[in-house]
Design goal:
Blueprint (H helix, E strand, L loop, with lengths): L1 H17 L12 E2 L8 E6 L2 E8 L5 E4 L10 E4 L12 E10 L13 E5 L28 E6 L15 E8 L1 H4 L13 E5 L16 E4 L2 E8 L10 E5 L4 H5 L2
Antiparallel strand pairs: 1-9, 2-3, 2-5, 3-4, 4-7, 5-6, 6-7, 8-9, 8-11, 9-10, 10-13, 11-12, 12-13
């Protein structure tokens, strides 16, 4: 699947380059947010470089991210950031002690793409660093088709090239039911239990992208998703795919 995703990303890039006059949807299609408007977001960094997002969920010494963001060591969780390319007095940086992937994560299908970060110490809650609550545990798809959710990150803002922003971006997208997202004109069966889709179906232009992985999707003030995968970014037929945090709540809590 990774090969297919990369091929589609490449194809999208070529098509976009051939159509250079069209505005490139620039997170894609979102905006720079007010500083510290998402005080639960984490930037996961190695040697000072951002590589994935995460969230501070409920506990000040435990982060939530995607399993595919895994590194066995050398990961620092940065909270309280807005511009990750500047040194900001609002940030708190804590090393990840244990990066615990879901035991049934599968890197081929990306099922169970969720991980808990057990931190070496606790973040101090202040104006810039505030955990976010998780919804109640769910056993099945639970958000209504069309529900408005918000995804944030420091990932690529261009669907056709690499344009990594310094400042945090967010975009609002719509839940796409698994049955629609899985039909033959969309992901054709690749959306598995514990995943949900969100985007602007059959329109595109708004999405997460590379570098947003592991980062938060919020709905009604709760953490409902972690950015996981997609074919390319912001494509009309292929919404973003997220891990359904509520379906892993019991596992997250027990770590
Ligand atoms: N896997 C990507 C990452 O590592 C996230 C991709 C999200 N793609 C999408 N179209 N929503 O950053």
């Amino acid at each position: 699947m990774k090969k297919l995703i990369d091929f589609l990303k490449f194809t999208a890039g070529v098509l976009a380059a051939a159509n250079a006059m069209a505005p490139v949807p620039v997170i894609i299609g979102g905006n720079i947010v007010a500083e510290h408007s998402e005080p639960y977001i984490l930037s996961l960094q190695r040697s000072g470089s951002h590589f994935c997002g995460g969230s501070l969920g409920t506990f000040v010494s435990k982060g939530v991210t995607a399993a595919h963001c895994y590194y066995s060591s050398g990961v620092t969780a940065v909270a309280g950031a807005h511009n990750i390319k500047q040194s900001e007095s609002t940030t708190q940086k804590i090393q990840v002690d244990t990066f615990r992937r879901h035991p049934n994560y599968n890197s081929r299908t990306l099922i169970n793409d969720i991980a808990v970060l057990l931190l070496r110490s606790s973040f101090v809650i202040d104006d810039y660093v505030v955990p976010i609550s998780l919804p109640a545990h769910q056993n099945n798809e639970w958000m209504p088709n069309g529900a408005d959710v918000r995804v944030c990150g420091w990932g690529n803002t261009s669907s056709s090239s690499s344009n990594y922003p310094s400042e945090l971006h967010c975009v609002n997208v719509d839940i796409v039911s698994n049955s629609i997202c899985n039909d033959r004109s969309h992901y054709n069966g690749e959306i598995l239990k514990g995943m949900f889709c969100a985007g602007i179906l059959d329109v595109g232009g708004k999405d997460a992208c590379q570098g947003d992985s592991g980062g938060p999707v919020t709905y009604n003030g709760q953490l409902v998703g972690a950015t996981s995968w997609g074919y390319g970014c912001a494509q009309a037929k292929y919404p973003g795919v997220y891990t359904d945090v509520a379906m892993f709540k019991n596992w997250i809590d027990s770590q």
